[in-house]
Specification:
Protein name: Glycosyl hydrolase
InterPro entries: GH
Distance between the termini: 43 Å
Helix content: 25-40%
Keywords: Hydrolase
CATH topology of the largest domain: TIM Barrel
Order of helices and strands: EHEHHEEEHEHEHHEHHHEHEHEHEHEH
Number of strands: 13
Shape: globular
CATH architecture of the largest domain: Alpha-Beta Barrel
Largest sheet: 8 strands, parallel
GO molecular function: hydrolase activity
CATH class of the largest domain: Alpha Beta
Number of helices: 15
Low-confidence stretches: none
Number of domains: 2
Strand order of the largest sheet: 7-6-3-2-1-10-9-8
Length: 421
């Protein structure tokens, strides 16, 4: 399966959500994993809660680490590989920060030497505990940790792009020290691609780590502006994959669609299956996709309070582990891809020879990256071309005259936004 297209789910436990680590029940975990494996998926992404695993800077709880390893082993017994997110600071609208970083102990999450050393030890410990497990894919540094560096977070730890890059490099090195040679990545939300002045950048996303991770949510203004069935909405994940590739140093870097889901009510429950199918079909038409990890495996129980409404129904399965229509779509497409690969090997999509030029002000800090956001000129032009049947890639303007770069990517035609809008 190493060279196969990967299909997985972000594992949301049916009992207690991610608070299940407080009352860890391996039998319940096994039942959840059975239902995920029943969809024909090949991996899960799992989320240790940082404050529960490292409640003190000098204490990574051995029992919590043992439970993580037990979960990974249970997944392996069911044919599921495991990717582990380390520094869980933000999940489904809630922040998870240990007390040794807040209030009386307030220190920068990205720049304080003591905090950095504690984070390193934590990531190295988790990776090291799983390093000998054959089904361990690797670490993700954390889930959308960039949110803590900038607005709209209500209490951000401000950093420069240089500090953000140094932090990422140090955390990735800690993962590598714990489990050498694994698939270690970092993941941010779409501010890296869309928000002017954000210290985490597309260049960092596309050049650090083993792959570029993309989180593609249409509640960012896409579904609101273009509607649930608009071309821009159904191709949003594919657009982000292609935009991410524009920042890479060269062709062939894998892109992992690490989060994508059908958020209600912007995507109505009776339209979730259509959105899921369209999103997957369009993403799978992009070269260099490593895999798709759907958000999420199971619905959040209505017994839990204070989640945004859209969070409760994002699962491929219900909280009672029944397969939903979107889950049926993912299972069908995953099975069809697997069957094709077994019969003829993996055949990548055709190269996208037409590229839309994006002037973000230079790849390093992209001061004008908002042109790529919903409503921006690049986004609008890409969506219009796609609706007309074109398969556009994206090339940054500072590389548009680099013939070697274009040739390496198979790009033979450049289109400017002014040619389209």
């Amino acid at each position: 399966m190493r060279d196969a297209l990967r299909f997985g789910a972000n594992y949301t436990p049916t009992r207690g959500w991610f608070h299940h680590w407080l009352d860890f029940d391996l039998a319940e975990v096994r039942a959840d994993l059975d239902s995920i494996a029943g969809l024909g998926l090949d991996h899960v992404r799992v989320f240790p809660l940082w404050p529960l695993f490292q409640p003190n800077r000098a204490l990574v709880r051995p029992r919590a680490v043992e439970q993580l390893v037990a979960l990974a082993d249970a997944a392996g017994e069911r044919g599921l590989d495991v990717a582990v997110d380390g520094l869980q600071r933000h999940l489904s609208s809630f922040d998870f920060l240990p007390a040794w970083t807040r209030t009386w102990h307030r220190r920068s999450l990205f720049a304080d030497p003591a905090v950095l050393a504690g984070q390193e030890e934590y990531l190295r410990t988790l990776a090291g505990a799983l390093a000998d497990r054959p089904n361990f894919l690797g670490m993700t540094v954390g889930n959308e940790v960039n949110q803590f560096s900038d607005g709209p977070h209500p209490d951000p730890d401000r950093v420069t792009p240089e500090q953000a890059a140094a932090w990422l490099e140090r955390m990735l090195a800690a993962c590598e020290a714990g489990a050498p040679g694994r698939f270690h990545v970092h993941a941010e939300d779409d501010a890296v691609w869309y928000r002017d002045g954000h210290p985490f950048t597309g260049a960092q996303a596309a050049r650090l780590g083993a792959a570029t991770a993309v989180d593609a949510w249409v509640f960012n203004g896409t579904a609101q502006r273009y509607g649930p069935t608009g071309a821009a909405t159904e191709h949003h994940a594919a657009y982000l994959v292609e935009l991410a590739k524009a920042y890479a140093d060269g062709p062939g870097r894998p892109v992992w669609l690490q989060e994508v889901g059908a958020p209600a009510p912007l995507i109505a429950p009776d339209g979730a299956a259509r959105f899921t199918e369209a999103t997957l079909v369009n993403v799978l038409d992009c070269p260099d996709v490593w895999g798709v990890t759907w958000w999420c495996s199971h619905d959040v129980s209505r017994e839990l309070a204070d989640f945004p409404e859209l969070e409760y129904g994002l699962g491929l399965l219900t909280n009672e582990r029944r397969v939903k229509p979107a889950g049926q779509v993912v299972a069908r497409i995953a099975a069809a891809c697997r069957d094709r690969e077994r019969a003829a090997g993996r055949r990548p999509p055709e190269v996208r020879a037409t590229a839309l030029v994006a002037d973000v002000g230079g790849a390093r800090t992209a001061p004008r990256r908002s042109v790529c956001a919903p409503g921006g000129a690049v986004f609008e032009a890409w969506a219009r071309l796609t609706a007309e049947g074109v398969r556009p890639a994206v090339v940054l303007s500072d590389r548009a005259a680099d013939r070697g770069h274009l040739t390496a990517r198979g790009i033979t035609e450049l289109v400017r936004t002014t040619d389209v809008l």
